[in-house]
Structure formats: structure tokens, C-alpha cells
Design brief:
- The protein is α/β, with parallel strands linked by helices.
- The chain is globular, with a radius of gyration of 16 Å.
- It has a five-stranded parallel sheet with strand order 2-7-1-8-9, with helices on one face. The protein has a two-stranded antiparallel sheet with strand order 3-6.
- The relative contact order is 0.22.
- The protein is built from six helices and nine strands; from the N terminus they run H-E-H-E-H-H-E-E-E-E-E-E-H-H-E.
- This is Uridine kinase.
């Protein structure tokens, strides 16, 4: 199946969900380098929607305790994400949050969004157990390991690739396997042969 066919099947699934729901909250979960941001962008060009990124809610440095990081999905600030994004979406309220900037270890300027019928939540850890019940539809994106490494090297550089291999990928894989994340999803998209 070609990229366009897979993308069209996701669009049709979301169109069906939008007909059946007043509001639709969609998780785009999956492995780093699998194309979550790319899919979110493509869907944003197709639908009138809001897109929120879990990368904006990485855990602040001062909260990175050994105990917290030992828990699957513990390296994302899911408490703040739930309070500042998911709860307002649920209540059809305006959203205001400050993205966490890992480079300077501080919160950036606020981002404001008005409620829309479709909300996309893009990023690994979006299906953390404390957040998973908030979604009406869940997409899991996967990619084979060699393609994953190639994409990360292209996106982040060879030096940072080692950090992904040594730290971020093992944390993600622990989260996926411990919580059976893939099995929770309505649609699984393997992008190994797409977008390269």
C-alpha cells in the first residue's frame, strides 16, 4: 500500500469519527522517527484542527528523579499536559500553555488556542495511563530500527543519534512494552517505506 493510500485511510477514519462525535480528540503515538510530526502536519493541512505536541511537555530537569524516570512514560510532564491541554479540550475551553524548552531548561512564551472540533495530540507518551482515556481515536506509528536510526541521524545529527540510542529509544521501548501501548490503538501505521 502506498503512502497516499495509508494517509487516505486515516483521513476516512477521522471523517467517520467526526460525523459520530461533536468533538474528536486523536492521539498520534509511536516511535521516534516514525513520522508522527509529519502525519500531524498532513492532517493539519486537511482538517480545521488544533495540534498539540508532547515534546512541549518534557519533564523539567528538576523533576527528573531516578524514581520518576523508572516509571514507564515518567519523563513527560503528563500532569501539566492533562491540566493545561486535555482538560480544556474536554470542556471546550480556550487553551493556554507554555512549552518547555529543553535547551534552556525553562518555559517559553505562552501558546493560545481556541477550541476546535478536532484536536490532535502528537508525540510519544501521549498514551500515558493518566492520559489515555481522553482520546476518541488512537493512532500508533512504527518504523523498523535501521530506518529509525537513519531518520534520527538526518533530523538530529550523528552526535545526538547516540543519545537516542543510549537513552531515548530504550525509555520509549520500555514504555511501549510495559504498557502494551500499540494494542490500545485503533490504527497502526508502519512508515518504514514511507516519506524517505
Amino acid at each position: 500500500m502506498e503512502s497516499n493510500d495509508k494517509f487516505q485511510s486515516i483521513i476516512k477514519a477521522l471523517e467517520k469519527q467526526l460525523k459520530e462525535n461533536d468533538h474528536l480528540t486523536v492521539a498520534i503515538e509511536g516511535r521516534c522517527g516514525s513520522g508522527k510530526s509529519t502525519l500531524s502536519k498532513l492532517l493539519g493541512e486537511t482538517f480545521d484542527c488544533n495540534a498539540f505536541h508532547m515534546d512541549d511537555f518534557f519533564l523539567p530537569f528538576e523533576m527528573k528523579t531516578k524514581e520518576r524516570l523508572a516509571k514507564p512514560g515518567g519523563n513527560v510532564h503528563y500532569e501539566r499536559f492533562k491540566e493545561e491541554v486535555l482538560n480544556p479540550i474536554k470542556n471546550s475551553e480556550s487553551i493556554s500553555y507554555r512549552p518547555y524548552n529543553c535547551a534552556v531548561r525553562a518555559l517559553d512564551e505562552p501558546i493560545h488556542s481556541s477550541p476546535k472540533k478536532l484536536s490532535l495530540i502528537e508525540g510519544v507518551y501521549s498514551l500515558h495511563p493518566s492520559l489515555a482515556n481522553a482520546y476518541d481515536y488512537k493512532i500508533f506509528m512504527t518504523v523498523d530500527f535501521q530506518t529509525q536510526l537513519k531518520r534520527i541521524a538526518k533530523r538530529n545529527g550523528e552526535e545526538k543519534l547516540q543519545m537516542f540510542i543510549n537513552q531515548w529509544i530504550p525509555l520509549e521501548e520500555h514504555y511501549f512494552s510495559s504498557l502494551d501501548v500499540e494494542k490500545q490503538c485503533d490504527y497502526i501505521l508502519n512508515t518504514t517505506d514511507l516519506w524517505d
